Amino acid sequence: MATQAQQPPHLHLAELTATQFLDIWKHFDADGNGYIEGKELENFFRQLETARRGTGVDPTHAAFREKIKEFMMKFDKNADGRIEMSELAQILPTEENFLLCFRTFVGSSAEFMAAWRRYDTDRSGYIEANELKGFLSDLLKKANRHYDDKKLNEYTQTILRMFDLNGDGKLGLSEMARLLPVQENFLLKFEGCKLSAEQFNVIFTFYDKDGNGYIDEQELDALLKDLHDKNKIELDSTGLVGYKKSIMALSDAGKLYRTELEIVLCRDSTL
After folding, report:
1. Using an 8 Å Cβ cutoff, are 217 and 248 in contact?
2. Cα–Cα dist 41/37, whole Å
3. Are 222 and 178 in contact (CB under 8 A)?
4. What is the pLDDT of residues 154-205, one digit of tens each?
5. E strand residue ranges, the chain
6. By the 8 A CB rule, do 142 and 105 touch?
7. Whole-angstrom Cα distance, residue 249 to residue 247?
8. Got the DSSP string for 35-89?
């Protein structure tokens, strides 16, 4: 029999705090890859049904498969067959879930990136842990959300537990962006086509047509179109405009220097 420590935490609660949400996430994302998928997903849905209905469910039964299919159609916003952190935040009941703030008050990934840029002053793709509190405070103010120091400290510590996995006191942009709604997280679109440092340098040089050391919006437009065509990623005109706006939020007065674009496209610069 499973011990109490092995039991899924908090699923029976009517409301969750940020800390309790994280406990649930860490329990079901067993391999720590940032998704609840495969057997993890089956386990999550089975335990959620049990907690909500008070009875067990048989995962081998056809009715279970049909229910999980309906469940995913409702909550798996990008239809990739797995649950991400922002999707889980929509599933579970919360009293003041700060994760949902990212969906309700960060209206776009461009706003998130603009806030990030103010704190990632050295353009490394990371912010230091001691700057995180200010970053979260800025986002909460934008939302006109009331918070006190106690809540802000809880949110800050929860984020640290989520993303500072190696304890080095640094938080990566691509990991923090997982808090965004799936449809707004443009960084997820680039997961399958991250470049090595060598590949990135070749591409940056090619698209920096005038050799001035930065890429402007027009040059970025060509780069994104070619990158998506090469990797067979579906991209409509609306999506392209959104991605450009998000990436340009990292720029300096319309100039996207090598370090800013590297954060988005180069796998060697992320956690």
Report:
1. yes
2. 5
3. no
4. 888 877 877 776 778 888 877 777 766 656 666 666 665 667 788 888 888 8
5. 126-128, 170-172, 214-215, 256-257
6. yes
7. 5
8. -B-THHHHHHHHHHHHHHHSS---TTSHHHHHHHHHHHHHH-TT-SSSB-HHHHH
Please, are residues 56 and 133 in contact by the beta-carbon 8 Å criterion?
Answer: no
pLDDT digits (tens, 9 = 90+) for 46-88: 888 888 776 666 777 788 888 888 889 888 877 888 888 778 8
Question: How many of the other CB atoms lie within 10 Å of CB of 144?
Answer: 7
pTM of the prediction?
Answer: 0.58
> 208 by DSSP, 3-state: which?
coil
Q: Distance between CA 67 and CA 94 in Å, rounded? A: 23
Q: Give me the helix-helix angle, 129-142 and 149-163, nearest 10°.
A: 120
CA distance 66 to 68: 6
The C-alpha atoms of residue 145 and residue 152 are separated, in whole angstroms, by 11
Q: At what angle do helices 129-142 and 109-119 cross, to 10 degrees?
A: 140
